[in-house]
Amino acid sequence: xxxxxxxxxxxxxxxxxxxxxxxxxxxxxxxxxxxxxxxxxxxxxxxxxxxxxxxxxxxxxxxxxxxxxxxxxxxxxxxxxxxxxxxxxxxxxxxxxxxxxxxxxxxxxxxxxxxxxxxxxxxxx
Length: 125
Prior knowledge:
This protein is an alpha/beta fold. Helices cover about 25% and strands about 25% of the residues. The protein is built from three helices and eight strands. Strand 3 and strand 4 (about 50-55) form a beta hairpin. The longest helix has 12 residues, at about 15-25.
């Protein structure tokens, strides 16, 4: 029997706060027993579940693993604007004049992730 990925775990300084940010990004929900100050927060989404774990160390270098997001019901550019309003920042803009490319963003604790074109945008290219 093979192994399955149960959660994608993200170390952070405030599990609950970062879980709330990502709940807004992914339109997911935190577990009913997660509260501010908890050392862990579990986010359930339509895709993979994310587990946020409070650790004492701070992020100091680029992520070795990151999430690539593909908007489902909006364009990549609309999604970037929505995520900026939620508290993300742009780290690198790799959009090309022909519509290809992606935007590298960071969550409030500096964890990088990318926003790609939507499936509809890919089809129309």
